[in-house]
Amino acid sequence: MSPPVVVTVAGTDSGGAAGVAADLTTFAALGVHGACVVTAVTAQDTTGVRAVHPVPLDVVAAQLDAVLEDLDPVAVKTGMLGTPETVRLVADRCADRILVVDPVIVATSGAVLADDAVVRAYRDHLLPVATVATPNAEEDDRLGRDHGATVIRTGTGGADLLCVPGQPPVRLAHPRVDTDNDHGTGCTYAAALAAELAHGLALPDAARSAASYVVGQLRLSQRWTLGRGRGPVAHLHQPKPHHEGDSA
Ligand SMILES: Nc1ncnc2c1ncn2[C@@H]1O[C@H](COP(=O)(O)OP(=O)(O)OP(=O)(O)O)[C@@H](O)[C@H]1O
Ligand SMILES: Cc1ncc(CO)c(N)n1
């Protein structure tokens, strides 16, 4: 049987921690076929973002149309979209699919990846058609809740908060990993959530499974010493016999 198809609409991270790299490896790990629509190229490493190059809107639209028309993805996951026009494009094209919106506004390093116009476009166009959004606390506060979407407010203290409009919030607790290697956790979490929803899990179960996946990956990379800043969360890392001599 063929795997479900999930497409990520996101930016690249040259350091290989966040964005498209995190999404595609997470999709592969969780048994869905991953397609990718690149919205921006970032010059980025573990210490920060040096430059952002948005992909022209018509090129983003051409990638998205190709994937939607040929592969018919059951779910769409958005990461860094970069411009208000790209936010609107995704809202217009993807409203009828499972739509996981990770509103990327600030990177783990503190770099600003979306301006006020992008934030407004999220509020006015994309969040109202999202299945679920996964802002961190800062992004959630920036976006407010007038958009009406179901939100999982992610936290780094070992719990996330599932907020369905009109219902009391549900605390989703999970173990906390003490680590500096957390670059890419937000992308990995939202990609895992999209994969689990694509497999047919209901939202709270998909959210628990996604958090448990991230915790497992954070444990794998807990003692890595890659880069000089906040190192990458592990993607698909399984020690192979011929790599046993690698430093831990
Ligand atoms: N140290 C940690 N231990 C356990 N879980 C963590 C830790 N840090 C983050 N998480 C979990 O990872 C998921 C993503 O949350 P996080 O707050 O890192 O997203 P984010 O701020 O959007 O990340 P990014 O800016 O890297 O995209 C959540 O489920 C959160 O609880
Ligand atoms: C490309 C990209 N997407 C998302 C994030 C969020 O951490 C990042 N740092 N870079």
> Strands of the largest sheet, in order across it?
3-2-1-4-5-6
Shape-level CATH architecture: 3-Layer(aba) Sandwich
Query: Count the helices. How many?
Result: 7
Main sheet makeup: 6 strands, mixed
What can you see in these coordinates?
The structure is a single chain. By secondary structure, the chain is of the alpha/beta class. The N and C termini lie far apart (37 Å). It has a single domain, classed as UDP-N-acetylmuramoyl-L-alanine:D-glutamate ligase (3-Layer(aba) Sandwich). The radius of gyration is 17 Å and the shape is globular. It is built from seven helices and nine strands, in the order E-H-E-E-H-E-H-E-H-E-H-E-E-E-H-H. Strand 7 and strand 8 form a beta hairpin. Helix 2 packs parallel to helix 3 and helix 6 packs across helix 7 (203-220). The mean pLDDT is 95. It has a six-stranded mixed β-sheet, with helices on both faces. It has a three-stranded antiparallel β-sheet with strand order 7-8-9, with helices on one face. Bound molecules: adenosine-5'-triphosphate and 4-amino-5-hydroxymethyl-2-methylpyrimidine. Residues 10-13, 18-19, 42, 44, 79-80, 104, 107-108, 186-187 line the site of 4-amino-5-hydroxymethyl-2-methylpyrimidine (HMH). Residues 18, 107-108, 136, 154-156, 158, 160, 176-177, 179, 182-187, 189, 211, 214-215, 218 line the site of adenosine-5'-triphosphate.
